[in-house]
Amino acid sequence: MRSSTAPASGLRLGVFLLMLPLLLWLLLLILLPHVDMVLVSLRERIGFAEHRFSWMHYELFFTESLYWRTFLRTALISIFTTVLTLVIAFPVAWYIAKLVRGRRRTLLFLACLVPFWVSELVRTYGWMILLRESGVISGLLQWSGLAAEPVEMLYNDVAIMVGLVYASILFMLVPLVTTLDSLDDSLVEAAYDLGGNHLSVARHIVIPHAMPGIVSGSIVVFMLSVGNYLTPVLLGGKDSMWFTEQIFTQFITRFNWEQGAAFGVLLLVLSSLIVWSGLKLTRQSFAETMR
User: Fold this and answer.
1) Contacting residues for 251 by C-beta, under 8 A, at least 6 apart
2) pLDDT of 104-149, one tens digit each?
3) Residue 165 and residue 171: Cα distance in Å, rounded?
């Protein structure tokens, strides 16, 4: 009995030691900060160092139209960004997964990866150089005669969406390539042999097979977009009306950590509800998307 239990206990200890860094990371950097943020959001200052329990910071979000309208705007633009990212990334993923092989496939995937070797700040400034009034695109429009004067393309919702799509398209591309690569080519060929056209094959064969990759990529892109701060502020300007900017204002500008914490909790909860609703609409489970 001793010889059989000793290896089992040693195996359990080994597994625990291997999991320990992950558990510490989840506990110290994710769980505890979120718990502390919830506790801070439920405090109301009544003195220099005195607090009491209160829901007032959450009530302010729902009673002040500026805050909930800003969140709705942020959520809607993030949803549109997710859909646009999917529309752009799906043909690229199909081409990489099914139409090219060998070195060309590696080079194409590397070309999609190279822009992410620099920071998001540098990439966003690149778009500002392209879209500003004195930028490259405005200069080309004037040179070609399509515009009689400089065209300002920054500081609007389209510029924000362009920046968000560019910042997150790789996170949609990778799961799509992975799922499409596992699709058996004989299934697609059989569908065409049975009289299917491009639309019916995509609807009944390709999209259902790629659905876990579509859902997982959409979740990541949406969460990255709704929680993005740098791109909306730089490309949208001071009137970008982005919810993370409201959180930054409460924490850094107004030093109202209680209100900022409440907004942070609301951003997490409401965006998670949107993701849950999307999973229900697509009849997918979170476990299936993580396979």
Assistant:
1) 257, 260
2) 888 888 888 888 888 888 889 999 988 888 888 888 888 888 888 8
3) 10
End-to-end CA distance of the chain: 38
Global pTM reads: 0.87
Cα–chain center distance at 126: 20
**Domains by residue range for the chain, with CATH:** 53-289 (1.10.3720.10)
Query: Dmax of the chain from CA atoms?
Result: 89
- What confidence tens digit (pLDDT) does each residue in 46-71 have? 777 778 888 999 999 999 999 999 99
116-124 long-range contacts, Cβ below 8 Å, gap at least 24?
Answer: 116/170, 120/167, 120/230, 120/231, 121/230, 123/166, 123/167, 124/163, 124/167, 124/230, 124/231, 124/234, 124/235
CA 18 to the chain's CA centroid: 29
- What is the distance of C-alpha 99 from the center of its chain? 27
Burial class (CB in 10 A: 0-12, 13-18, 19+), 15: exposed
Give me Rg for the CA atoms of the chain: 24
Look up tokens 């951003």; give the residue. 267
